[in-house]
Amino acid sequence: MKAILLLEDGTIFEGTSFGARGQKCGEVVFNTSMAGYQEIITDPSYYEQIITMTYPLIGNYGTNSVDWESRKLFVSGFIVKENCKIPSNWRNEASFDEYLRKNNVVGLEGIDTRKLVKHIRTQGAMRGIISSDEFDIDVLKKKLDQYPGLVGRDIVKDVTVDKSYGWTDCVVDVLTGKERKDEGKYKVIAFDFGIKHNILKLLCSHGCEVKVVPAAASAGQVLKEKPDGVFLSNGPGDPAPISYAIETVKELLGKVPVFGICLGHQILALALGGETYKLKFGHRGANHPVKNMETEKIEITSQNHGFCVDMDSLKGKDIELTHINLNDNTVEGIRSKKLSAFSVQYHPEASPGPHDSSYLFKNFIELMSQHTGR
Amino acid sequence: MPKRKDVHKILIIGSGPIVIGQGCEFDYSGTQACKVLRQEGFEVVLVNSNPATIMTDPEMAYKTYIEPIRPEIIEKIIDAERPDSLLPTLGGQTGLNAAVALAESGVLEKYNVKLLGADLESIKRAEERDRFKKTIEDIGLDVPGSGYAHSWQEAEEIIKHIGFPAIIRPSYTLGGMGGNVAYNVEEYEKYIQWGLNLSPKNEVLVEESVVGWKEYELEVMRDRKDNVVIICSIENLDPMGIHTGDSITVAPAQTLTDKEYQIMRDASLKIIRAIGVETGGSNIQFAVNPENGKLYVIEMNPRVSRSSALASKATGFPIAKMASLLAVGYTLDEIPNDITKKTPACFEPTIDYCVVKWPRFTFEKFPGTSPELTVQMKSVGEAMAIGRTFKESMQKAIRSLEIDRYSLGSKYIGKISLAKLKEKLQTNCWDKMWYVAQAFRKGLSTDEIFKLTKIDPWFLNNISDIISLEKEINSTALEDIGPQLMRKIKEYGFSDKYLASVYNISEAEFRKHRQQVKVNAVYKTVDTCGAEFEAHTPYLYSTFEDECEANPTKKKKVIILGGGPNRIGQGIEFDYCCVHASFALNEIGIESIMVNCNPETVSTDYDTSDRLYFEPLTFEDVMSIVEKEKPDGVIVQFGGQTPLKLAVPLEKAGVKIIGTSPDSIACAEDRKRFNKLVEKLELRQPYSGTAMSYEETLEIAKKLGFPLLIRPSFVLGGRAMVIVYDKKALKSCVENAIEASGEHPILVDKFLDDATELDVDAICDGKQVVIGGVMEHIEEAGVHSGDSACSLPPVSIPPKVLDEIKRQTKLLAMELKVKGLINIQFAVKGEDIYILEVNPRASRTIPFVSKAIGVPLAKLATKVMAGKTLDELGFTEEMHPKHFSIKEAVFPFLKFPGIDTLLGPEMLSTGEVMGISDDFGIAFAKSQMAAGNILPTGGNVLFSVKDSDKKKAVALAGSLQQMGFKIVATKGTCMEFIKNNIPSEFVLKIKEGRPNIVDWIINGQISLIINSTIGARSIADSFSIRRTALDRQVPYVTTIRGAAAVVKAIAAMKEKKISVKPIQDYYVQEPA
Q1: Which among B122, B294, B672, B709 is least buried, having the fewest CB atoms inside 10 angstroms?
Q2: Maximum CA pair distance of chain B?
Q3: Which residues in chain A touch residue B332, judged by CB atoms under 8 angstroms apart?
Q4: Neighbours of B966 (CB within 10 A)
Q5: A219 lies in the same domain as A256
Q6: B349 to chain A, minimum CA–CA distance in Å?
Q7: Which residues constitute the domain of residue A294?
Q8: Mean per-residue pLDDT pooled into runs of 10, chain A (374 residues)
Q9: In this structure, what are the phi and psi dihedrals at residue A301, rounded to the nearest 5 degrees?
Q10: How much is the ipTM here?
Q11: Chain B residue closest to A296 (CA)?
Q12: Residues A160, A92 within the same domain
């Protein structure tokens, strides 16, 4: 079965369909992780994106019911060089193809993915439409023209939860099945802008009592819970239009310690009066070197973002630059000591990716400890 | 952190000769280290006994000592050079062991030398099994159950806790030497005893077997600021139980979820920190239970390794270069990534292709040994292939191996019953993948094959895919293969050669058809980053996709074809020549383009040539590159037999071969044409003939008489070459030779008994010939030139004869219109000179001769091939060094239990060493020492020689006796000695009763053995003498001429002290 990808600049890639049949628009991006496709595809930050994996052999170890990062699949499409039909791993429960079909994600395989990646690298991330049931280019082009892209749109509202809820699952060692749980002291309110489960699990494992709230929850609602800390989650798209959340964070700052990841980091920066901008093709992968400015040590990090904080916009605001990306010197972490808030652009919760930055969760606990005096 | 200020002069210890388990990967890493440290302004002092390395080129280091890698010798070098630091982690296990010995004996402290990278404690934590185990357990990781035995009693105790099967690993040995799997008590005792003997410390580790588990390796780097990164993950296709050097391996890991991979990554970070490797690269091996993911740490190498070389080539991240920079104080974030230029080296490479490494074996050389693969490494080389999918890489790897196999086709294994097939799948044979493929053809399921092989189903399913497409190919007519199917077939990696055979047409015809349907190879870049950043280094591989990234330049350019995987007969020497070709082209402003598929080499360092194509050396793959690059010429004469085989087909396809014409090369190989040429020049050859059958050979034998030298044509390394003394032995020898010769006739020569063999390397530009060097073989004619020790200059040849040899060399070179190098082998008997062989191409001895005379012959030859004259290059006079350079061969006998160590016309050595001194005896002693043959200066010498050697033996025994040795001899030899008034003790041969020779050797009563023999029976009778000597590490000589050199060496050692001198000083003393 045929499937195609049409880009907004008219470039067409034709390959074979896998996963679900259908068509979907999204921003075409690439991810350089060699493993972890299940975590990637269940990460809500990829909402309205068509992901191309640079590693050509995907699906090798199948999928399972543990490596989910959210309640469903949010991506618009998935592109690989070769999808593995018969996976092999003791944790496998269903092939990737079955998984995509069941979760209604359109897959495209057998194209020159490296060519596509180079195209995006040189031309920038762009809108595209993936289709396995309609091949009339004019029809697809029309649809694509109507798709507005990510810039300036609030798409957090599409991925966040309706109601708040408590979270109690901890990180479980996949080999031993043992739960990791520290003694608990702190109550954390976590904003769900598209939150990954591993963040919640890590907060729990660090002994936090976690309550997840919708993206639009007000400061009043949050403060009523008397939290020891507030967590701002990752999420999809452009942070600038999420004005309600930015306003909420402004109100919370100084009253309660704040820790943000990815979109949460960008929202914190915006709440602090900074600005964000769109990167040419973003950072998506599990090998980005980030320098911790304080320790001068390098962390290999998991990344997934198309927008970035502009450090110049935070000048003179008593904000420290705590982390930078060594590949392109972009902002990876900021902190306001005065306001007990810090955030990172990358993903210390990993999943997928290296665990080098997991200390940030401990830092959050320490911050709450200092703030509460407990 | 910037460069350390307390480091100025660094000693680097190389890895010595190429042996199984330690190949030319350490030349690659050592060369990188020397280059980058020199660039950084450090004075590098290098010691390495292997002349065939790029790292021992005089310009690579401040001072280069081609001396034995022995602690007592290195101490002399330290004393002379006073380095402030020693970098111990680049010279493989040999270099590391030498560094440990120097540290432990207090030499480093005495001379105030710092260990860089890893201190003694860290090295020991990684190398000593019980300390390693404790360190790993202390950080909460698991190792297989194990115990350390120093005696059989201790071993018996351990096995009670561990149970069978158990793995036995001797401590401190190379390439897992002496490692075995025991399934019962009998095997267990045998392997324990063997292991205890082999271990320099008389220690063996007995380990719980994890045979059948999945095997992984991670390449880890750490810097002074404690930044740790993983460069590459490698998954072994072959499960635990087969040494990783003998396993087909794949990068990156394929069948781990990210959760599992991160557990392994976390473990690696913990391990490198706990072991305490301060800076540099390490390799950590893991075993994973396929049923539940349980993880065991198997071992760690606190140094660069074969796997790190592979990882460097697989990712484009130069581990050894980085390790060197980290050792002198830089941190990862301060070093730029070579390939992207703009991003730092502090990251983890991500790749967008699949790499397959396939080991190369030479079991055909050792018919007496079991070809089963175990935990002790047996392969002599490897090929690596890069493709976009595993299927493609795997099929490319097969045709890279140079074993005349171009697919997984059933023809390579012949007809086989299902029962036999299943049996094969359960044994660890080197060619198992062909049986796996056959099993799919016969309808076995993945699950069944998995149960028999324990190969992960993911790999098996990929092979199943290949076989399914193979079926489709076989049922589709050629004209029905349209663009889409053709593209799929090529994406799966099927070779043109295989496809042509399916359709019964020539490869060229198939190629034409493929190009008609517009399916052509494109090239992608190895860029460390999955295309996320722009790559500035043209390191390319082929695949079948849309976009081609080759972007050839319009400069003047030449393609150099490399030698492919190392094997006996074709090794590092040819890579050395290819690398020099590249350097030379660079010097004269021509773009160099390297094609090779051997990941161990300097030639496949992306830094060596202007452009690198990591590709198989087959007609198809080379032709595609030629069509893309449109070079001004192709060099085929440097890479050994592999590219030579391509010369004629390439030329026919219109490719310009530069240098000596393929026709001249063919003329030298074609017996009839060559005979004519020799006649025309009025020179002499041993009487000879060519034959295509046993009957024809018999006819020739009647004419010439025995002994005869029988060999196939168009092979390297004396493959299937034998000396036949009687008609009885003739038939099987002829059959073997005919098989090895393929469609070419076999060569039958009158064998010149007791002649002296000489090797001459010369260079010719078409106008004049300049002799590079004349080497006299130490052993008599009949021992393969690659296995024979030799001396430059010759020691026993009269000047008149030498002059005549040089005249003949020049005559032949001019007549063959050589443009480049020529190597001629002569036999001299009295004043009679016979031409044995002419090779108008780079020979194995080129690096040795170049090092001996201080002139880079391969570079000069390249420039000649590119159109320069020797006059222009200023090389018009032969060099006459005043010092002696001895080349000695190194053998893999220890790795193959049960095989004989006698030398013959079939080459068996894997590597070579060089001994240099102003005195012949000392130079020879050094060469022996470097080859691991430590000559004694006292004790009992055992003589057991054939009749024709007895006279010479008398003289040697006399000298030894005068030097204070006691002489012991077997009956015939003993009687001859006593007759000549040499006191000699009589010792029984094996069959004569006890205590016999072997008892004496085992009891440590013999310090040197001189044993020559002739005829099948006496060879069989004396086999256990040689084998016991080998296993007990007693120096032995199997030729009387070799013994004469040994006696000279011992005399020199007793008279003078062994001194050391850098090669740079030898050259300064003797200007051209």
Answers
A1: B672
A2: 86
A3: 298
A4: 16
A5: yes
A6: 7
A7: 156-372
A8: 97 97 97 98 97 98 97 96 97 98 97 98 97 97 96 96 96 93 92 98 96 98 97 97 97 97 98 96 97 96 97 93 96 97 98 97 96 89
A9: -120, 160
A10: 0.98
A11: B225
A12: no
